[in-house]
Amino acid sequence: MVKKLLLFVFLCLLGSGVNAKDVIPIRPALNTVNTIGLYQVGDDVKIYKEPSEDSQILYRVRWNNDEFFPEEIGFDKFFTVFLEKKSLALVSVVDYTDDWIEIVYDNSKGLSGWIKRDDPYKFMTWINFYNTYGKKYGLVLLKSSPEFCKDLKTTTEDSAKTISTMNYPKKINLNVIRGNWALVSVMDLDRTPKTGYIRWRSDDGVRYFFPDLK
User: Fold this and answer.
1) C-alpha angle with apex 16: 15 to 22, nearest 5 degrees?
2) pLDDT in tens, 109-130
3) Is the pTM value of this prediction over 0.90?
């Protein structure tokens, strides 16, 4: 009996360790509002102070699916999205040139630096990211988002008429994005289908909804 109990505890701890490295936004990210998109990074990244190899190296980040170095940054601070099962290792982008990408390397403080751009197709604007993953997996309302985010509007205006309000949505399907608004179809807890526009992000870039990547 004791052996079975110890085995159960060990498996629980092992399982929690595996899940802990996954990174998906839970609440609106207030330190990365000025970002323009996401970049898929490799497992060995040099972060420079300026977009030049002669510039100071701030950090050399190395990671695999179980460990991250340096530990003071870690998976949660470095990645905006990290999901091994979907092969996603995405960091937020502040700016870019033909050869360089300015990324946020510490989400908790909004600190940024430059990395060499090794593939132009690894960069996605926020719109492209939502169109790709939001349409595939649907959206989820982030915790602590304002109550008005639950309102479904007739048009893409804050003053537009509210058609309905989401209560406990089982699924939020993304149809199209228009600026800071998204046309969604919602199946609520009462099983009543609802369609209208929601504010998926604020005018200054705070995201209230995120693709439901889980």
Assistant:
1) 105
2) 999 999 999 888 999 999 999 9
3) no
